[in-house]
Amino acid sequence: MTADGEIIHFDNVGLRYGTDREVLSDLTFTLHAGRFYFLTGASGAGKTSLLRLLYLAQRPSRGGIRMFGTDVITLPRAELPVMRRRVGVVFQDFRLVDHLSAYDNVALPLRVAGHSEQDLAGPVRDILEWVGLADRMDAPPATLSGGEQQRVAIARAVIARPAMLVADEPTGNVDTDMAAKLIRLFDMLNRQGTTVVVATHDLDLLRKVPDSLIMRLDKGRLSDPTGALRYPPRKLT
Amino acid sequence: MTVRPGWMRRLAGSGRVELIPQGRMSGPMPWVIAIMVAMTAIALAAGLALGNAVSAARAEIEGGVTVQIIEPRPEVRAEQAALAIRAIETMPGVAGIRQVPQAELDALIEPWLGTGVTGAAAGMPGIPVPSLIDVRLEGAVTPAKLAQIAQRVEQVAPSARVDAQSNWLKPVFEAMLSLQVLAMVVVALLAVALAAAVLLAARSALGTNRNTIEIVHLLGGTDAQVARVFQRSIGYDAAGGGAVGLALALVVVLALGRRFEGLGAGLVDYGALLWSDWLWLAAVPVLATLLAMLTARLTVLHVLRKML
Ligand SMILES: Nc1ncnc2c1ncn2[C@@H]1O[C@H](COP(=O)(O)OP(=O)(O)OP(=O)(O)O)[C@@H](O)[C@H]1O
Ligand SMILES: [Mg+2]
């Protein structure tokens, strides 16, 4: 992280899958540590694609990306895992391991990071309790409802206290009350210092986090990275 | 669907971290491996047993010379036999000599001609049967040695016939050798098929686990971590299949061994498996498992390297 609180910097980034047209073009922006960002845009605008760049599932076709002060384009492949562990991800399709219980799915990031079972048992239980799944800990994902799976995915994304949380439509499958509760969880983490990036097209959600900043993708281009579309509008400092 | 109970989780604690639960028999592959291991082990056991029979019999027979005293009058026959034994005994390079007792000769003939045909039992002039003298030389029988013995024997027993045992067992040897070669070819073919089965098993497991691999990768798992998870899971499958296959093979081999023992026939007795042969058999599932794990590892690393 650099002195001015920069956590992510995109410099003229473009992304194309295969030889198709670019799905992301000319992205230049900076995310600041400790902020709450919403990423909006129509379906197919490239929200997921942009997030994939953020959680290092994808390299851009062109341009530069700096994360936590490190140029990830030239970073050796072997050093990417450590980088990934600093980013918590809620995938649009959850991506739970289907033969693992809710508990084991949530414990996965801590196990990957090498925490002992004693150390992780408490936090895993706590977070599952928080998302209202205390009595479903041993259930495999297939026996959970869509909303319950989503909450497991969110619990897994935040369990390791990542420096940055990236969530792709994290409230798509839950009712308004649960959505509000999950956003409160994100907000709480954000207040404790986690930078949050949430992709959504639920504009009601934006209102729930007053201090949030809004980025809007339009056919692969960032139409307003300055925060003018925020609700209520306020200039990015 | 396996969900690890709490006690297993606790067992997994204390430093050793299990990323995903292990030991799931996934699909038909463990059984394919079991069958391939069983067939490979059985063919290998057959090959090894044949090999043992051939080499044991050869060691015994290579130094063996049979002297037949062909003489119709029993008294003369006995006298000539005694003289021949004395003549050969004193020769250099002779490790042992023994006249095959009448009872043994009777037993040899009995299946073909019935009891008492040699006359001794019934007190009648029976069919004259030559006396057999079994000579054991220190080294293998050479034509020169054979000629020497024949020369000596001729002086005391003009009607004697001297043969190297290996001469008339040669066709048997050759048959056994070709059987052994056949067994080894079958073992080699089965080993190739087993390797292919293991390869397919690793590939198919990769297919079903691809999602898990990707997730662990995206959650910050290193290539080595992901590969280890996967290779361990395949290893358990292969080891499970291999163990079942080996058990199957052992049942078959032991049952066959019993049958052959029941025959009580000379050559087959030598076909017993040595302890080192049992180690070879046990090595079949071990090698299959190692191959499975290596394949799994290389396959996963290859897939991961294509991801960022
Ligand atoms: N793996 C891929 N290969 C080829 N094209 C892809 C791939 N993933 C996405 N695309 C294309 O890139 C464009 C942007 O897709 P993306 O998933 O980023 O959109 P999105 O904004 O997340 O949409 P939604 O709101 O529906 O989730 C789409 O046109 C899509 O068809
Ligand atoms: Mg999307």
Describe the structure.
The complex is a heterodimer of chains A (237) and B (308). Chain A has seven helices and ten strands. Chain A is of the alpha/beta class and 237 residues long. In chain A, a hairpin with a 5-residue loop joins strand 1 (6-16) and strand 2 (22-32). Chain B folds into two domains: 21-58 and 170-304, no CATH class; 71-158, no CATH class. In chain B, strands 2-3-1-4 form a four-stranded antiparallel beta sheet. Mean pLDDT of chain B is 78; it is low at 1-17. The longest helix of chain B is centred in the middle third of the chain and has 54 residues, at 165-218. Chain B is rod-shaped, with a radius of gyration of 31 Å. The A-B interface holds A 55-59, 77-78, 80-85, 89, 95-101, 104, 108-109, 111-118, 121, 138-140, 142, 156 and B 1-4, 9-10, 12-15, 17-21, 24, 211-212, 214-216, 218-223, 225, 305, 307-308. Bound molecules: adenosine-5'-triphosphate and magnesium ion.
Quaternary: heterodimer
Order of H and E elements of chain A: EEEHEEHEHHHEHEHEE
Poorly predicted residue ranges of chain A: none
Strand content of chain B: 5-15%
Q: Could you tell me the mean pLDDT of chain A?
A: 88
Approximate strand percentage of chain A: 15-25%
Q: Provide the spatial order of strands within the biggest beta sheet of chain B.
A: 2-3-1-4
From the N-terminal CA to the C-terminal CA of chain A, the straight-line distance is 18 Å
* Integer-rounded radius of gyration of chain A: 17 Å
Q: Which hetero compounds are present in the coordinates?
A: adenosine-5'-triphosphate, magnesium ion
Gross morphology of chain B: rod-shaped
Protein name (chain A): Cell division ATP-binding protein FtsE
GO molecular function, one term (chain A): ATP binding
Function (chain A): Part of the ABC transporter FtsEX involved in cellular division. Important for assembly or stability of the septal ring.
Subunit structure (chain A): Homodimer. Forms a membrane-associated complex with FtsX.
